[in-house]
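Example record

The entry below shows one chain as it appears in the dataset: sequence first, then structure tokens.
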Amino acid sequence: MSIIIDAPIASKIDKMRQRVRWNHPKIFARTIDQTAFYLDDGPEQAGGENASFSFLVIGDSGSGPHTNSHPQRRIAEQMVPHLDDCQFLLHMGDVVYQVGSHEHYPQNFIEPYREWLVEGDRPKSIAYDQMVFQHPFLPVLGNHDYYNLPWPYRLLTRLIRPVKRALGSSLSSNLGTYGSNTGDTYARAFLDYLQPLDGATALESHLDQHYTAQSSHGRCLRYQPGIFTRLPNRYYTFRYGGIDFFALDSSTFNEPSPLAAALEDGQERRSLLSKRYAIEQDERQIYAEAARLDDNNPKDLERIDDLQAKLEQLDEIKRDIHKQLTANDPTNVDIEQLRWLQQRLIDSWHQPEVQGRVIYFHHPPYVTEATKWHQSQTLAVRHHIRWVLDGVAAVLGRCPIDRPIVDLILSGHAHCLEHLQTGETGHADAHLNWVICGGSGFSLRRQREEGATIEETRENGIRRAVARSKLYVGLKGHRGDRHRSYSFLRVDVQLGNPPKFVLQPYISERYHSQWQDYALEPFML
């Protein structure tokens, strides 16, 4: 059984609402939109409706140094030269591994991204819940940012530090002794955490000081680089130039439905149980091999790193199986957020000054990474995003401009860099560009053996291609001949109607203990 605990969706939603005082009377009375913010970065934004701009994208980065290297810091260093002409950075989630604990923020976030932070030249003096960004850093929650640890494990590791040796030496070192408290650490690090403000006067003063901007739905928070850099909510929207950006919390609409579990089919249940048993056998073999390795021996370091990555991968698959076996509530989905996105997309299309739309969130609906492409969570997110876009299409009808509802959809979760295009899906997610940027620091994954084309079985039983991978960068090779290609993305937006998005992948590849940095050919969407 996995040590890591993933809280129920209802608990995630409720706790996050409390932290931002969702719809508090004082907030409601001021007509404040708690899902929007204004990025205040000077005259470029104030008059930037016709100005092109650029931004960076990373994801799944939040690890400390690996056993013999530090991929996350390597990627951060390669991004630093872009800070002068990129207006902000989007992070696709899993900000800190393994369980989003505050104890890991200094080494796994503050130190690697010190150039983004005020007083970043003194990173040890920065508290995780007091960070101010001099360069806008705009994340979404990943599943690891929500994870908890059971209290017996936490108590045991505090009392008996050597217990980690019994759990597999350095293979368990990423867990630490705390969990995220169902996303509380992330909320204190990045959100406008209003819960501690005692009394009406303190809350009113804060709202009047920081919610001074205006969105199309009321007053909103003002994000001021170098001064106040909090986000309003776990999902949010902002406009930069002529582009509307929509950031989602996909960890609250990624649960498989009871139909996906097919538990009334005994054969399907037995198959899932058999897969889980095989995974547990693989885990035992990994621990046995790790026990024979010496983490003080340089020759063993990369193998230990590989084993740690494999354990994390197996645990993730096992957790997905558990979700399928226990799925029993068809209403276990964040319908409020999905309806919010649907309505905001419709509103965006009714505003002529908006030239394009970008959505970003953690779990990819389409992916060919070997462990993610067929997971129940992937299929659940695909289903819900389709529901949103189908609803938007139904309201808009045929747009006067023959173009997709959304120009670009970004995600992470899969530890790779991938560009996919959907074909004819039978839904409003057809003919869209999907880009996964989840290879920015943690363990990399390889592409599936089944190939680059994703198929679905229709109601008539006929299989049909719905998406195809155009680019995949991640892990390739085996054992001592592995190429580990970590990545980040630069996006240059050329405004127009429709706008053009030029995507430039940057790679830091580790091969035979040596690094090589290079850029791939840019491609335009």
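Notes for this example: The radius of gyration is 22 Å. Residues 9-258+326-524 form a domain with the Purple Acid Phosphatase; chain A, domain 2 fold (CATH 3.60.21.10).
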